[in-house]
Amino acid sequence: MKPIKLLKRSDAKGAPFYARFKVRKKAYLWSTKTDDISLARKRAQNYRAAVIADKFSLVDRMNTVSTVATFDQLIAAYLALLTPAPKTRAVNVSAMRAIMAANNLIGSDRLDRLDAQCVTRFQHKSLAAAGGGESAMVTCNSRVRCARSMFSKRALYCYGAELKIPEETVKAFFRVPALRESEPRRELPTAEADAKAHAELPAHPEHYRAYLLARYGGLRAGEIVAARRDWLDGEKLYIGGKTDEFNTKSRRWRVVALPPRVAELLTLSDDPVFLVGPNRVRTVRVGLPAYLKDMGFPKTKPLHSIRRQFGSEVYTQFGPRQARDALGHSTQQITDRHYCRSLDAPKALAFAG
Q: Which residues neighbour 117 within 8 Å (Cβ) at sequence distance 6 or greater?
C-alpha cells in the first residue's frame, strides 16, 4: 500500500494538511483540519482505514466540520465561570498559555491537539530554559497543575454541551506524572527565638496577641487580622463558620483549644470587636514580621513558620489527623507534605564502640 501524501494548499500560518491517497483506483483528497504533521498523519491513516473498510457512515462524520472547541473558546468559557476566584482563573489561564507556547499552539487551534506529548514537551523546555534545578521543577509542576484546573470536574460540568471537549484529550493531558521534586526541610523557629518572643513581645500587646494566635492557635495571617472576640468560647477558639463575616482559605471552619492563660490574654484587647486590636492590619502585616526577624525567626515568612511550628507540635503529640483539623486543611496530603513532621527523632541505636 502506497504511503499517504500530506500537502498544504495554502502557505498561510496555521493552514491544515491535506491527505492524498488512492483506494480501489479512486483518488481522495481530505483535509486533516490540523497543521501538526504527526496528528495529520494519524488522522489521515484513520480516514483511509475507514474508506478501505467501507465504513461510509464513519467517513461521512469525518468529512463534516469538527465541533471540537478551540483554545480560545475554552479560555473564554473558563474565565466566565463563577469559581474559582478571578485571580486564580487568570493564573490558570496563564499556565495554559505557557503550555500552548511551548507546543506552538495558538488560540484558534482545536483542543484535540492537546495530548500527553504537550505536557512532556513543556516539561523539557521549561527545565532547559531555567537551566534545570529544583526550583525549575517546582515551577513547572505548578504550571501544569494550574493548567489542568481548567479541566476540573466542576469546570467540565459548567461548560455544558455547548463546549465540546473530547474525553480522550482530557485523559491524555492528565496522563503524564509530575516531575519528581526533592522534599525541602521546612524551617521552624528555634527554641531561643520562641523564648525571646515570649520575653519581649508582652511590651507590645497587639503584637503579642497576634503572636499568640499563631503560636497556640495556628492561625494564618489573614485569620489573625480577622479574629473576633465572638470567636472565643471560653478556652475554645472557633475559626470561620460565620460566612457573612469571614471565610477561611479552605472554606472549612475549625476549632482549637487554647491554653487558659492565652485565652485570658486575648480578651485584654482594647478593640470592642477584634482580638488583636485597632491596628491589627499593620501589626500583622508589617510590625510583627519585623520583630520576629530581629528575634531570630526564619527570614522568609516568619509568621507562617510559627503556624508550621504549631502544626508540627500537634502532629507530634496528638497525631496527623488532629494536626490536619487544627490547621484547617482540606486534605491530609497538604498537612503531611507542606507543614508537619514529627518532632520526635527515633531513639539512637546502641553504640558498640
A: 103
Return the C-alpha cell found at 54: 467501507
Q: Are 109 and 14 in contact (CB under 8 A)?
A: yes
Burial tier of 232 (Cβ tally within 10 Å: 0-12, 13-18, 19+): middle
Q: Which DSSP category does 206 fall into? A: H
Spatial distance between the Cα atoms of 25 and 131, rounded to a whole number of angstroms: 54
- Distance, CA of 149 to CA of 126 (rounded, Å): 19
Q: Give Cβ neighbours of residue 282 (< 8 Å, ≥ 6 apart).
A: none
- Position 41 scores a pLDDT of 87
* CB distance 203 to 242 below 8 Å: no
Q: Quote the DSSP letter at residue 131.
A: T
What is the average pLDDT across 238-256? Answer: 88
Q: How far apart are CA 253 and CA 250, in angstroms?
A: 8
Alpha-carbon gap, residue 240 to 106, rounded angstroms: 43
- pLDDT tens-digit readout, 24-81: 888 888 888 788 888 888 888 888 888 888 877 666 666 654 568 889 999 999 999 9
Q: Which residues contact 322 (CB under 8 A, 6 or more apart)?
A: 314, 315
| Tens digits of residue pLDDT in 325-351 | 999 988 888 888 777 777 777 788 888
Is the pTM here over 0.90, yes or no? Answer: no
Taking Cα atoms as reference points, which of 268, 300, 277 lies closest to residue 224?
Answer: 277
